[in-house]
Amino acid sequence: MAGTSRQINSANAYIDAEFVMAPKDFAVEGRTIVVNPNLTPVTVGQEPVRHIPAFSSTVLVDTTIEQGDSVLLLRVLDEGNMADVVNQPGWSLFADLLPGFPRTTLLYRGPVERIGTVEFDPGLALGEEKPLGPRTFEISVNLWFAPAGTDCAIHNVHEFIEIHSQIHGYGRMQKFKERDHNTLYEDQLMSPGHTPPVPFCRTRPDGGFTYPWHQYRADTDCVWLAVEYHAV
After folding, report:
1. Other beta carbons less than 10 A from residue 66's beta carbon
2. What's the fold here for domain 2-76?
């Protein structure tokens, strides 16, 4: 077994979280959400050989990762008391972090950690019509929590590429025609281990990214992982 593994600061008493560089025949013990934050596939060590595609995730149980550039491994340790995760070190009500965000929206963010850099062509990564050339991105990760029934605010501004992986509970990634819940046009269901298959932004001529109006909605108490790619 090979690979450099370290616990990341998203880990706490409720969720174990580690980052593994260059896994090779790396043992996955117990029920584990495996996130591939790269553009290259991760190979699962079972026959017939199958892969975890770029920017996606799955749930593996007592198997091995044959090879990959890197993976994030997350294990839920306490299903029954997940709402208490917001009392762990480094967690904040998002309204305390973003001025003007409504305090009545009980959205909580865990500690943010930069885990490394990756190089890819954003045009190819986002499935656009033509390549734009390679760029370097810094990857940061953090967990979020929202209680059942929370609409986490419709927005459309990010200066980075992001993906979301469901860790606990059941929620939705929703897209809207306007900043209005009545204009919903896509409703992606999120269950543990799921990541929507393609980031839903597009590149802009100035090098930034255009997003549709979107939000996360928690149907039950939910924890999800955000992986962000910031151009450097």
Report:
1. 16
2. Jelly Rolls (2.60.120)
